[in-house]
# Entry
Amino acid sequence: MTFKLLAFLDSPPTVRNAIGYLLGGWLSIYAFVAHIEWSFPGRFTQANVLRLIVVGLGICYCVLRLKPWARKMCIFFNIGIVGINLLFLFVRVYALGLTSPALTVHALLNAVLFGFSTYFLIHPETASFFKELEIKAKSDSEPSA
# Structure
């Protein structure tokens, strides 16, 4: 089970951009959780933080392995993360007031990073790259007669 580093380096720029924004987004999410915990202690249990870390690492690992199904799963999760961060922004700005602009800016950063990752994952060039990988994987797994 070797890492497909050469396949990643040979991939189109949109794929590399998508993965770069994805990694940046997950690092930003972890920093955001730490920021919330620092601002409002006791909001997250260790089990919830551990789940978040496992999910983030799992998604990044599968997408870095250039798995076609991982692209689709990542788009699904990214849309949810963008939605949650936009909801956080809405509640933070309109309902609670802008008491801590740092948390608001951090949530905006999360939404932007995951939004860009989603944009590049949906891009036609990225979709065709993953489609070719899927076709190649199916043809390699079929037994030859």
Observations:
- The mean pLDDT is 86.
- The first helix runs from residue 5 to 10.
- Residues 14-135 form one domain.
- The two ends are 26 Å apart (CA to CA).
